[in-house]
């Protein structure tokens, strides 16, 4: 079965063609970063307009790169939520119309479940059960995953998402947007333990997160120490990143031990951070736990993961009707 996947929940317009839920025939991502860059974050209205401009060329390119004909597509999947309503509507309505015009099954995919599915697009997939972290600009969620359809939410952020904290700290340092990759690169030359930013672990046994304390502490430090040079900024970046990685790693390993899981999978934009992957893997290994992370191109928003999730939904008959709508927040 060949599925066309479409993603437009935030600032990436993406389309992919995936065969049988696992084989990526093409995956095209048109990023709007250049446009939002000058505002230091995503401007929803601009995002919607740019999705409208990009959607048809991106789908065309995905079909061409997959070397298939439109008639070969057996099903359609698009992100239904969570995300920016105006942005979601562009991809969702395009996909709905495409499916309706060609009389194809159509699945409305949960973006967070799709991030977990990016782990199933790898040759070396985690076996069930495993602990999954979806860590991006909008979410920091820990799940206990026991099957292709069972994602038990164990914890989530109570304020900022980890990626959001990266973006906000980068903005404070005046080093650009999106903050994650810039901070990671800048941090490479510095000792991460030089500044001790707080680690907020919340109540004992909780798998929730809070990153606002770390963020405020970085803001105070930048102000009090009058951080201005590139060298000083790199030091703040390294120690901030270390604090975030420390909290994420501790919670993940605690969750794995609590659920007696020997596997942890990480997904979402922040999982592209190789310092995080290496440090988590090392700590997990000492507890006999293996870490799985997708290749960088599948960490951030993409449509291959949407098609992969859509494939299982279509197979199960879990389809969207024409009057189904998008949603901005997960109902948990
Ligand atoms: O999954 P994603 O592309 O979009 C959302 O659904 O939010 O994630 C984007 C987030 C941004 O906050 C970005 O700063 C962060 O992922 N990110 C990183 C890295 N690459 C992207 N954070 C830390 N280190 C990175 N290398
Ligand atoms: Zn995402």
Automatic annotation (TrEMBL):
UniProt keywords, alphabetically: Acyltransferase, Cytoplasm, Iron, Metal-binding, Transferase, tRNA processing
Cofactor list: Fe(2+)
Catalytic activity: L-threonylcarbamoyladenylate + adenosine(37) in tRNA = N(6)-L-threonylcarbamoyladenosine(37) in tRNA + AMP + H(+)
Enzyme Commission number(s) of this protein: 2.3.1.234
Cofactor detail note: Binds 1 Fe(2+) ion per subunit.
SUPFAM superfamilies documented for this protein: Actin-like ATPase domain (SSF53067)
Subcellular location: Cytoplasm
InterPro entries: ATPase_NBD (IPR043129), Gcp-like_dom (IPR000905), KAE1/TsaD (IPR017861), TsaD (IPR022450)
GO MF annotation, one: iron ion binding
Binding site for substrate: 134-138, 167, 180, 184, 273
Binding residues annotated for Fe cation, in chain numbering: 111, 115, 301
GO biological process: tRNA threonylcarbamoyladenosine modification
Pfam families noted in UniProt: TsaD
Main location: cytoplasm
CC terms in the record's Gene Ontology section: cytoplasm
Stretches assigned to the Gcp-like domain: 23-307
Function field: Required for the formation of a threonylcarbamoyl group on adenosine at position 37 (t(6)A37) in tRNAs that read codons beginning with adenine. Is involved in the transfer of the threonylcarbamoyl moiety of threonylcarbamoyl-AMP (TC-AMP) to the N6 group of A37, together with TsaE and TsaB. TsaD likely plays a direct catalytic role in this reaction.
Family note: Belongs to the KAE1 / TsaD family.
HAMAP family assigned to the protein according to its UniProt record, in alphabetical order: TsaD
Protein name: tRNA N6-adenosine threonylcarbamoyltransferase
Lineage per the UniProt record: Bacteria, Pseudomonadati, Thermodesulfobacteriota, Desulfobacteria, Desulfobacterales
């Amino acid at each position: 079965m060949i599925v066309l996947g479409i993603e437009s929940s935030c600032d990436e317009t993406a389309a992919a063609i995936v065969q049988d839920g696992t084989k990526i025939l093409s995956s095209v991502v048109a990023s709007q970063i250049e446009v939002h860059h000058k505002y230091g974050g995503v401007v929803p209205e601009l995002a919607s307009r740019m999705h409208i401009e990009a959607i048809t060329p991106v789908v065309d390119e995905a079909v061409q790169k997959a070397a298939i004909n439109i008639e070969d597509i057996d099903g359609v999947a698009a992100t239904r939520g969570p995300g920016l309503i105006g942005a979601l509507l562009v991809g969702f309505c395009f996909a709905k119309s495409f499916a309706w015009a060609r009389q194809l099954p159509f699945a409305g995919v949960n973006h967070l479940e799709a991030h977990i599915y990016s782990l199933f697009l790898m040759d070396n997939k985690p076996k069930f059960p495993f602990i999954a972290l979806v860590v991006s600009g909008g979410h920091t969620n820990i799940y206990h995953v026991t099957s292709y359809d069972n994602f038990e939410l164990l914890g989530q952020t109570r304020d900022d998402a980890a990626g959001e904290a990266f973006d906000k700290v980068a903005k404070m340092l005046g080093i650009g947007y999106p903050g994650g990759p810039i901070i990671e690169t800048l941090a490479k030359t510095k000792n991460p333990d030089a500044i001790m930013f707080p680690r907020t672990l919340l109540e004992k046994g909780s798998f929730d997160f809070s990153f606002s304390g770390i963020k405020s502490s970085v803001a105070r430090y930048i102000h009090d120490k009058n951080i201005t040079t590139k060298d000083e900024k790199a030091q703040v970046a390294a120690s901030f990143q270390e604090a975030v990685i420390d909290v994420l790693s501790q919670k993940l390993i605690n969750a794995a031990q609590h659920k007696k899981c020997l596997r942890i999978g990480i997904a979402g934009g922040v999982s592209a951070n190789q310092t995080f992957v290496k440090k988590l893997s090392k700590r997990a290994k000492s507890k006999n736990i293996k870490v799985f992370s997708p290749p960088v191109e599948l960490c951030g928003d993409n449509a291959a993961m949407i098609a992969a999730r859509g494939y299982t939904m279509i197979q199960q008959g879990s389809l969207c009707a024409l009057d189904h709508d998008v949603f901005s927040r997960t109902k948990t």
